[in-house]
Amino acid sequence: MKPPFSLRPADPDPESSDADLVAEWMSRPHLRETWEQPWPAERWRQDWVAKTHTTYARAAILSYSIPRSPHIRAAKEATRGDASAAPTPSDENDATTPVGYVEIYRPHRDEIGSSYLSQPHDLGAHIAIGKPELTGHGIFSSFLSELAAALLEQDPQCQLVLGEPDYRNTRTHRALAKAGFQDFGERQQRADRRVRLFGLTRPSAGREPQQRLEATP
C-alpha cells in the first residue's frame, strides 16, 4: 500500500496487542451494529490462527498516517526556508497508528457467494474502521481504491473485487461508490443479515463480472 496507508498481517501471538485492539474496536457501537462480532480477544486470536491454515481468508491491521495538528503544519510552513528552523525527524513524520481491521477473502467460499454468481477467483474485503472520527471525510475511499487495485494485481485471474457492507452502513456505501465500486443493491445474506453488494471489475473483463452480480443465482 502507498502512504498514508499500510497493511500488515494480524498477529495472533498472545504477546501481540492486535487481538486486544480489534476486540476493543468491535465492542464500539458503530461496529457492534454492523459487524455483529463483539468477540473477546482470545476468540479473535483463534480465528486468525484458523485462517492461516486455509486459503479462504487473511486478516490484517490497517494503519494510517494521521496528519499532525494544523497548528504544527502552519508553523512549519511559516518557517520554511529558515535554516535555523530545520525540522527534526519527528517533525517530518505524521503519526502512524492502527485504525482498522481488514479481512481479504474468497467470496466463492463464503456464504455471500450464494447471493450472486460467484467464481473461485473473485476477491472480497471486509473492512472495519475502529476510529469513527476518521470516517465520513473521504479518507478511506482512496484506500478502498488502492486495495482493489492491489488485489487485482496480486491475482491476475481475479476479475471482480466485492464489497458487502451491512445495508445500514451508509458511510461505507458512500466510500465504496467514491472509490469506483458499482452498487448492485441489497441482498439477504442469511436470515439475520442483510447486505448491500458493491463490485469493482477489472477493466479488461468486459460486462461478464457485472452480469454475474446482476443475475439471480
Automatic annotation (TrEMBL):
Residues 8-55 form the Acyltransferase MbtK/IucB-like conserved domain. Residues 75-97 are annotated as: Disordered. GO terms for molecular function: N-acyltransferase activity. InterPro entries: Acyl_CoA_acyltransferase (IPR016181), Acyltransferase_MbtK/IucB-like (IPR019432). GO terms for biological process: siderophore biosynthetic process. Signal peptide: none annotated. It comes from the Bacteria. Pathway: Siderophore biosynthesis; mycobactin biosynthesis. Pfam families: Acetyltransf_8. Acyltransferase required for the direct transfer of medium- to long-chain fatty acyl moieties from a carrier protein (MbtL) on to the epsilon-amino group of lysine residue in the mycobactin core. This is Lysine N-acyltransferase MbtK.
